[in-house]
Write a structure and sequence with these properties.
With 598 residues, the chain is α/β, with parallel strands linked by helices. It contains 26 helices and twelve strands. Strands 5-9-8-10-7-6 form a six-stranded mixed beta sheet. The protein is globular, with a radius of gyration of 28 Å.
């Protein structure tokens, strides 16, 4: 057993024991994997309860030890942890097949043989996964695993799942991840790299920095990897090696069969160092680390195929001219060269006139409207809001489409009609529209804070699942009450027969919370959320018992469910004078100011 992993497990057991949570080595290993691979935290202090809620290991768990949903990329991770001394290739295949059968059972609603924990958590996360979402089966074991043999076995056997769905992490990956999170930054002291031709380098310098662009030999990359992979070679690479199946397969395919064109197909490496010197077909580098190109370096270094032909990779080598500025320079280079994440559709919209207009407009109201990922002003006085969050806010509150806001947020940028209806509304031209979106953003800032507080307060109650999944549903109901308070809807009973009243009636903009003069807005928001949670829970329980929904996530996934079931139920509940009076009292801050058409 790896000493690194065993020490971590002992520390986890001791920590959880203080928290009155008793676990054995196998269970502690599950905490370890979630801590380092998914939460990427050095300590458990702030995350141990979150981790505990993700673990499903037990009898009749369908081979799934934990479930983690990546909201950023809509990826559902189903994990299996095997705390064993040996793992055979057949065991691996059996474990993956078991998880795959479990997923198919849940998709076909054959769930009677599974325990309640896995039934609830897996169904909920499968229901929230959009059509273009991805499921990954991840396996973790603190032993060496023969990856190549496993790959051959998969190809030869009749397996229902593909390589893109699986991730294998053995002792090497686990140790590396632990060290990556915990280790202080170090650099490699010195190394000589081989380049393609003597003195074949492009030089560039500024008053503060200098660098060269060379073609580094694949042999040098392999030697560097073998000698220094755990001793500073990647310590300045912020993202180190983040496994990406599609990219990995592409690089490996080129390594196998198209090495002479590798230079054209790869972005290459960036090495930051204290000093470098060119000597013929060698470059001597001192105190260095690879700050960009960790994935390329790892795959070349780990390559186990039969093609040994040497090839060359573009490589930029840079250093600071200032003698005492090395640490600061390394940090700056590492941050800037690792900020280039995969392009999303939202990135392509970041410089459009409507985005720039909103960014400039909202800046005047101390709102940091982030149109580019990572482009935050870090001003504590400003409310921070991403452009996609603004889209989800408008979809829910204004357009009454919380299912789309929650489960298909990519449509905000990919569907031109939706995009136009959100961002191309001439907010700068009309003051009443400006006042509305500013108030909506400020309301959302309050709402989110209160919502998060309530989630903590109700973490073990029957309402917990509604709170966990119901953010956009509740925002939409607040939007419905905005219309009701302002008499944009004259007779709410008509909604039960005509849903177009909600979705097709022209929305009336105007300031609301900025016009409210009392200081009890937070209290009203909290009371209204609590009132609505009880109403929604009541409806959900009825539908769940009659097998019309499979989970809370499924209940909240579609706009139609919201419009047909939730709003109708609220309308019926408001026929009670007490309920109606409570809801109208708690939502009085939604009454807008008189519209000014300028």
């Amino acid at each position: 057993m790896s000493n690194i992993i065993k020490n971590e497990i002992d520390n986890i057991i001791s920590f959880l024991n203080i928290k009155n949570i008793k676990v054995n080595d196998e269970q502690a290993f599950e905490y370890l994997i979630l801590q380092y691979f998914y939460f990427e935290e050095k300590t458990l202090d702030k995350i141990y309860m979150d981790i505990r809620n993700l673990i499903t290991n037990g009898s009749n768990d369908g081979g799934i030890d934990f479930i983690f949903y990546d909201e950023e990329d809509d990826i559902l991770h189903l994990g299996q942890c095997k705390y064993s001394k040996t793992i055979s290739v057949q065991t691996l295949i059996d474990e993956y097949s078991k998880i795959d059968r479990t997923v198919e059972d849940f998709k076909n609603h054959n769930t009677g043989s599974y325990n309640s924990e896995i039934s609830k958590l897996l169904q909920e996360n499968l229901d929230r996964l959009p059509d273009n979402g991805q499921i990954i089966y991840s396996f973790y074991a603190p032993v060496e695993i023969d990856h190549q043999r496993f790959k051959r076995k998969i190809k030869n056997d009749s397996i229902n799942f593909g390589f893109e769905m699986i991730s294998i992490n053995d002792v090497e990956e686990i140790e590396s991840k632990i060290q990556q999170i915990n280790t202080n930054i170090t650099t490699v002291s010195n190394f000589k790299i081989q380049i393609d031709k003597p003195k074949n380098c492009l030089e560039y310098e500024s008053s503060e920095s200098e660098g060269i662009l060379v073609n580094i030999s694949s042999t040098s990359v392999t030697k560097m990897y073998n000698q220094f992979k755990d001793n500073g070679l990647f310590d300045l690479n912020i993202r180190k090696y983040i496994r990406n199946k599609l990219v990995d397969e592409g690089i490996n395919e080129t390594l196998n069969s198209d090495r002479e064109n590798f230079w054209f197909m790869n972005n290459g490496l960036i090495i930051a160092c204290e000093d470098f010197s060119v000597d013929g077909d060698k470059v001597h580098i001192e105190n260095f680390s690879i700050v960009n190109g960790g994935q390329t370096t790892n795959l070349i270094g780990k390559y186990k195929g039969t093609n040994t032909k040497e090839f060359f990779i573009p490589c930029k080598i840079v250093r600071s001219k200032k003698e005492h500025d090395t640490s600061k320079f390394f940090t700056k280079i590492a941050e800037t060269t690792n900020s280039q994440k995969p392009i999303k559709v939202s990135d392509l919209k970041s410089n459009t006139p409507e985005m720039l207009e909103l960014n400039n407009l909202l800046k005047n109201y101390k709102i940091d409207f982030q149109i580019k990922r990572g482009d935050s002003k870090n001003n504590k006085e400003f409310i921070k809001l991403k452009n996609e969050e603004f889209g989800q806010l408008i979809l829910s509150f204004v357009q009454q489409r919380p299912g789309t806001a929650r489960s298909n947020k990519k449509a905000i940028f990919e569907n031109n009609k939706i995009y136009t209806s959100i961002y191309k509304q001439k907010y700068s031209k009309y003051k009443y529209k400006q006042e509305f979106i500013v108030d909506l953003i400020k309301f959302n800032d309050r709402f989110k804070r209160i919502f998060d507080e309530l989630k903590k307060e109700h973490s073990n109650s029957s309402e917990a699942d509604i709170l966990k999944n119901g953010y956009y549903i509740l925002l939409a109901i607040f939007g419905f009450l905005y219309r009701l308070q302002n008499k944009d809807i004259h007779d709410i009973s008509n909604i039960q027969n005509d849903k177009s009243i909600l979705t097709e009636t022209e929305f009336e903009y105007g300031a609301f919370i900025s016009s409210y003069k009392e200081d009890d807005i937070d209290i009203l928001i909290k009371e209204l959320i609590i009132e609505l949670i009880f109403i929604i829970t009541d409806k959900y329980d009825t539908l769940f018992e009659s097998k019309q929904v499979t989970s809370v996530s499924n209940f909240f996934k579609a706009d139609k469910k919201y419009q047909d079931d939730i709003i109708n139920h609220i309308v019926r509940k408001m026929q009670s004078k007490k309920t109606r009076d409570n809801i109208l009292e708690y939502s009085k801050f939604l009454i807008r100011n008189a519209k000014v058409n300028v």
